[in-house]
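Intended use. Records such as the ARH protein entry shown here are meant for training and evaluating sequence-to-structure methods. They are not intended to support clinical decisions.
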Amino acid sequence: ELPESWADMQEPLLEGMCFTLKYLGMTLVEKPKGEDMAAAAIRRIVATARVGARKFQKVILTVSPRGISLQDADTQEMVENISIYRISYCTTDKLQNKVFAYVAQSQESGALECHAFLSPKKKIAQAVTLTVAQAFQMALDLWEAAHAG
């Protein structure tokens, strides 16, 4: 449950805001951003996820000005840490409105990957997207402040 003024809360974001989501999967994309590209990628991920009929990995996605970190909700094991500078796009899908997705450049291959997550509610998917946008802004502000002198 998010407080009404959560968008004004800078403090928790510095530490990292946590969301518990289900990881649907990943697909490679050709463009770093764009609504149509993301929608198509999410459709592919969701279609593949439905076919698989396996249990989805429950993850704790933490958003901070440093980026996104993924932790297995059951084992607490770190799955991935994505620098804010490698993330080029994030969205809540218009049709699958409980799906949050982001596009990031893979550290290993340099390929653009779209990762999709299922949230329990539409509001949560939107909150993750807004929080990532806010983290981008904070990272930019911090970067500019560091380079101002």
